[in-house]
Task: inverse folding
């Protein structure tokens, strides 16, 4: 036993790195080959996101802000895919914007992966549009409150916002019945709540998909100021399964694998979390054994 | 083993494994593209106040769109001489470069090394320029140039951009002035004047933050805290149920107590003794639970990012797994069937 | 004078934004100042890039240790800037094909999109992913149940880590319905909605008070520390 404790105390951190790599890679290989995913039960925050979108009448405009970059795409891109999937399937008109410089590229990728591939009948400028990036963080939000087209003067394709058919009648951000932000930090969901939702006097409904780091910080706003929230990859997986279940075709054909990304990622998550718990327990065993040894030496 | 020898061994092992993988089945790490030719007839544009005018012409270009390997196999099976769907060497090289960068960053876990530093140097240069380019095309061109040089912008970049009203033109000249002043920070002599632009940024931010923080975080959050301490919960039949009522009421009580105790802990103008001290202690417990939850979620976030990178290596580069069904992977599929079924 | 002008610029800009939230007549100022802010923020990227170039050029000219990496940084910076601003490899926009710069800057197949796909994405996402390993190592070495506070932190972390994965269902899914609140997945939700909400709400209220006070001090010209040393004199 003392040998084991001594080994734990001296353990090189690179062994821990290796253990983490195996805990993550193992389930990825297993799920990647077998295609099996773990079942998900939705929590109220994820259900609220789904319900908020379902509640919108056909043809409603949804403002979707990509406030993240590739550094967080592992967590947030699966959410973005499912959000766009649900919006497209429910015939909602999607207006994409970004307050992070690398956001528009990811919007383009999502449009290609979901809309162009599975909803070819949707037309750019009529059913969806990518308005690109604007710098200035909360200052852009402030301008959007009074003049949306001034804040985002053109689309990524170079068409003036005023000439985009689906934006006819939109003057300010309040004209969107639902605001969706996929958020990785500053500016993100918190700033949207502070500068847009609060300023609208509760007229704007907002839901978010956010990183694990942001999730605990956003809980105080739910549900009064934030209608729904997808917290980390778990929130993404819950929402993904809700959307897939509601959009499943009647013929029992399998769900396309691109709509199972978050659920696939819950496998490595399980492995890594179990490893973390084991590491903390082992670290504490070593700590208490050492403390007892010291106490014995003293006495 | 000396550090240089251990690196040689590690690199040799990786190269050997990749070499083996390359020689099995359809290989690995290839990107295919589909050639799309576009021809557009452009009508003549008359010379106007805003436009230089242009004659009628035909514009042709070829675009290469990325496709899944399956599409290439299907095209080859139909016609082996086809040239529409082909292997893209630039993108294939890019994919391998991406894999190299991924491994180079991961190699930092073993110890600092030139590969990691190279990746770090690349990303610093690339991201600074990337942000600048996006800022230029998405903000400077439509807003600043669209305001002060509207004719040039509509003739070359954004033909449908509406003419700005006079007040916007003035605002954009003002923005140009402030931006120029800000750049004076790069000069040692003129750095002091850049404080004017900084003052504008700080003033606007302060003015925005007062309203938003009071409205959203002070008032709305206080209102959300003070909920009824007894919260009757009716069931499907409309009858109040004891269990849910107890849980909901307990939650409201715990939130009110928690917020007040945490705020007491943050209040340093009074010594934390007696009732205040006990409340502050409860506040610390709440904060510890909060930090524990934050830790759990942070782990969750980081692991998801790691999983995405491992998927990139195994799926896009090594072709060991194929969760999205992009290609036929006989070796991995056979091994998987043997091991897991 | 060098301090007075910036102070008044900050006061005027700040009050313009403040009033625009209360008086619809002044909404125009809020909107215009917001627009100017947006453009100045974009120009600030040039400032950042300029500083980067300045520091790295100095390193190269002095032949400091690792100057080769500075050269790589500058090369990558210049190359990205060149292909991005020049829209190298960008096909024209089919709608406005006659215009030389009408194409989408990051269109598929362009050099700029290539840099994004194979340079930016792998490096930035792997850098963030690397933290998973260090969090694990730190948890093993530093997460010690030394006292009640640490035990609370640890237990919460355990509940969240297990409750937010399938492990929670496996471990406590068999609990009878009357004790379903104690299932790890439900417990983790309860912790987030009650204890975490209370803790974070107090932090949010505290920050709001601090931000409001600091902003007011700036707008009233009391706090001048943002101007650098001697600002408060």
Result:
């Amino acid at each position: 036993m003392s040998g084991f404790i001594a080994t734990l105390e001296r353990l090189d951190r690179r062994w821990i790195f290796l253990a983490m790599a195996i805990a993550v890679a193992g389930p990825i290989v297993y799920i990647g080959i077998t295609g099996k995913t773990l079942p998900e039960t939705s929590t109220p925050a994820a259900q609220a996101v789904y319900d908020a979108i379902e509640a919108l009448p056909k043809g409603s405009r949804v403002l979707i802000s990509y406030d993240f970059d590739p550094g967080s795409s592992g967590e947030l891109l699966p959410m973005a895919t499912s959000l766009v999937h649900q919006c497209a399937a429910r015939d909602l008109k999607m207006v994409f914007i970004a307050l992070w410089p690398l956001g528009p590229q990811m919007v383009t990728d999502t449009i290609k992966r979901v809309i162009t591939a599975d909803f070819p009948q949707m037309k750019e400028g009529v059913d969806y549009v990518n308005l690109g990036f604007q710098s200035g963080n909360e200052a852009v939000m402030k301008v959007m409150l009074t003049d949306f087209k001034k804040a985002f003067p053109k689309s990524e394709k170079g068409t003036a916002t005023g000439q985009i058919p689906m934006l006819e009648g939109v003057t300010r951000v309040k004209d969107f019945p639902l605001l969706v932000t996929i958020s990785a930090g500053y500016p993100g969901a918190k700033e949207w709540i502070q500068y847009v939702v609060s300023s609208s006097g509760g007229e704007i409904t907002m839901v978010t998909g956010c990183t694990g780091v942001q999730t605990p910080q956003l809980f105080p706003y739910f549900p009064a100021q934030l209608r729904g929230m997808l917290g980390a990859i778990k929130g993404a997986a819950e929402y993904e399964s809700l959307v897939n279940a509601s959009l499943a075709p009647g013929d029992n054909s399998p769900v396309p694998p691109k709509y199972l990304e978050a659920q696939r990622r819950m496998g490595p998550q399980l492995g890594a979390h179990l490893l973390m718990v084991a590491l903390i327990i082992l670290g504490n065993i070593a700590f208490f054994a050492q403390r007892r040894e010291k106490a014995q030496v003293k006495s | 083993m000396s550090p240089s020898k251990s690196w040689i061994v590690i690199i040799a092992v990786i190269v050997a494994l990749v070499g083996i993988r390359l020689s099995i089945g359809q290989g690995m790490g290839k990107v295919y593209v589909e050639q799309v030719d576009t021809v557009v007839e452009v009508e003549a544009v008359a010379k106007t106040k805003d436009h230089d005018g242009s004659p009628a012409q035909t514009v042709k270009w070829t675009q290469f769109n990325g496709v899944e390997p399956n599409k290439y196999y299907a095209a080859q099976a139909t016609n082996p001489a086809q040239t529409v769907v082909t292997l893209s060497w630039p993108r294939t090289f890019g994919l391998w470069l991406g894999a190299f960068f991924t491994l180079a960053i991961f190699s930092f876990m073993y110890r600092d090394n030139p590969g990691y530093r190279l990746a770090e140097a690349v990303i610093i240069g690339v991201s600074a320029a990337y942000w600048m380019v996006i800022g230029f095309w998405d903000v400077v061109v439509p807003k600043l140039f669209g305001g002060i040089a509207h004719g040039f912008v509509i003739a070359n970049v954004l033909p449908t951009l509406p003419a700005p009203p006079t007040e916007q033109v003035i605002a954009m000249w003002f923005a140009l002035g402030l931006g120029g002043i800000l750049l004076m920070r790069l000069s040692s002599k003129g750095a002091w004047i850049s404080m004017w632009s900084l003052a504008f940024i700080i003033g606007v931010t302060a003015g925005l933050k007062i309203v938003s923080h009071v409205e959203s975080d002070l008032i709305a959050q206080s209102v959300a805290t003070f909920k009824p301490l007894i919260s009757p919960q009716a069931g499907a039949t409309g009858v109040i149920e004891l269990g849910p009522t107890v849980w909901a009421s307990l939650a409201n009580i715990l939130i009110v107590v928690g917020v007040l105790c945490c705020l007491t802990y943050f209040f340093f103008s009074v010594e934390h003794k007696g009732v205040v001290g006990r409340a502050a202690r409860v506040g610390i417990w709440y904060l510890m639970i909060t930090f524990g939850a934050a830790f759990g979620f942070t782990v969750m976030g980081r692991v998801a990012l790691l999983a995405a990178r491992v998927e990139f290596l195994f799926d896009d580069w090594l072709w060991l797994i194929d969760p999205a069904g992009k290609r036929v992977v006989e070796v991995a599929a056979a091994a998987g069937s043997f091991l897991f079924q | 004078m060098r301090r007075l002008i910036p102070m008044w610029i900050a006061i005027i800009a700040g009050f313009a934004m403040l009033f625009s939230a209360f008086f619809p007549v002044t909404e125009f100022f809020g909107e215009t100042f917001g627009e100017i802010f947006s453009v100045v923020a974009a120009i600030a990227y040039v400032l950042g890039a300029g500083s980067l170039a300045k520091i790295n050029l100095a390193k190269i000219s002095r032949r400091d240790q690792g100057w080769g990496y500075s050269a790589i940084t500058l090369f990558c910076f210049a190359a990205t800037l060149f292909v991005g601003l020049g829209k190298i490899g960008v096909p024209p926009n089919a709608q406005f094909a006659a215009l030389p710069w009408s194409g989408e800057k990051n269109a598929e197949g362009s050099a700029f999109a290539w840099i994004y796909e194979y340079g930016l994405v792998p490096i930035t996402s792997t850098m963030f992913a690397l933290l998973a390993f260090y969090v694990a190592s730190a948890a093993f070495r530093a997460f010690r149940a030394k006292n009640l506070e640490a035990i609370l932190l640890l237990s919460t972390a355990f509940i969240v880590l297990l409750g937010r994965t399938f492990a929670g269902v496996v471990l406590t899914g068999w609990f009878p319905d009357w004790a379903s609140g104690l299932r790890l997945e439900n417990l983790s939700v309860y912790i987030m909605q009650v204890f975490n909400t209370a803790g974070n709400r107090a932090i949010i209220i505290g920050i709001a008070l601090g931000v409001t006070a600091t902003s007011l001090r700036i707008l009233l010209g009391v706090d001048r520390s943002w101007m650098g040393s001697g600002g408060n004199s």
About this structure: Chain C touches chain B through 135 residues (CB under 8 Å). Chain C has a mean pLDDT of 92. Residues 1-85 of chain C form one domain.
